[in-house]
Design brief:
Layout (H helix, E strand, L loop, with lengths): L2 E7 L12 H11 L3 E6 L1 H4 L4 H12 L2 H6 E6 L7 H10 L5 E4 L1 H4 L6 H12 L4 E4 L23 H6 L4 E5 L9 H9 L1 E5 L8 H8 L4 E2 L11 H7 L8 H16 L2
Length: 261
């Protein structure tokens, strides 16, 4: 089985995207043997009120049974928007969202913001994973209207320290994978999964030794990144670097356990 833990639909205002609808993403999945994808709506990054983006995703997935069978939706929630509690409630109970995605750099808040901490605790209480993306696009070639900051792994540690018993997906680790010993131990103890889309995961065999095989899952960061690098990082490992059991955990086992699917 193969599950993509990091995919999106929707528009990006600074770049033309292919495979940015459920229909085209599903074609990509079928082409490369991906059984299911965790998906959210990119539009929610740019809407002042993120909830319409979650409703758009819900409507698109509901439009076909095959979409309902193959996509695992995550809601985009902005904790400094006054209606976030209502958005979370509706997303979890009526829209069938299986997790949430946060975009602090785009929505303009710090992970130590009390509202963010409250949101993550609320997600924890609902058993919903919280997804954080370290980089959406390479800032070196971005539009002047786009943000310039990119995160490294250490930048998500404050929320894990604040709510250590939540579930976290850390996506597109492109910069600064190395952290200190204390931070490594924090990540090892927490319920954290890093997807394989980011260039920082190029040293996956070494990272498996440092963190353990249960800390990683296949992800593409589609449609922004190419569809194959995240999978090649798994499949290119030798048997000495990762046995069949480990590769099965990375392909689907770890994310299935986190999501309860």
């Amino acid at each position: 089985m193969l599950i993509d833990s990091n995919a999106s639909v929707g528009h990006w205002p600074f770049k033309q995207l292919q495979y940015s609808t459920c229909e085209t993403l599903l074609g990509r999945m079928n082409q490369f043997g991906v059984d299911a994808s965790v998906v959210s709506n990119l539009n929610g990054i740019f809407y002042k009120n993120t909830q319409p983006a979650n409703e758009e995703l819900y409507a698109e997935i509901e439009s076909k049974k095959e979409f309902r069978d193959r996509f695992i939706p995550f809601a985009v929630i902005n904790p400094i928007f006054n209606g976030w509690r209502h958005d979370l409630e509706i997303s979890a109970t009526k829209l069938g969202m299986k997790g949430i995605r946060l975009y602090p750099l785009y929505h303009g808040y710090d992970l130590e913001n009390p509202a963010c901490i409250e949101l993550v605790k609320s997600a924890r209480d609902r058993d919903l994973p919280v997804a954080l993306t370290l980089r959406m696009v390479d800032s070196r070639v971005s539009s002047w209207l786009d943000i310039e900051n990119e995160w490294s792994l250490k930048d998500v540690l404050p929320i894990i320290k604040a709510v250590p018993d939540a579930k976290y997906l850390i996506l597109n680790v492109a910069n600064g994978i190395q952290v200190g010993e204390a931070e490594t131990q924090l990540l090892k103890k927490a319920n954290v999964i890093l997807d394989t889309s980011g260039r920082g995961i190029a040293t996956l065999p070494q990272l498996l030794k440092s963190y353990g095989p249960e800390k990683f899952a296949f992800g593409t960061h589609s449609p922004i990144l190419d569809y194959l690098s995240g999978l090649l990082r798994i499949e290119s490992m030798t048997n000495a670097e990762a046995d069949a059991k480990t590769k099965d955990l990375l392909r689907a086992g770890n994310i299935r356990k986190m999501l309860g699917v």
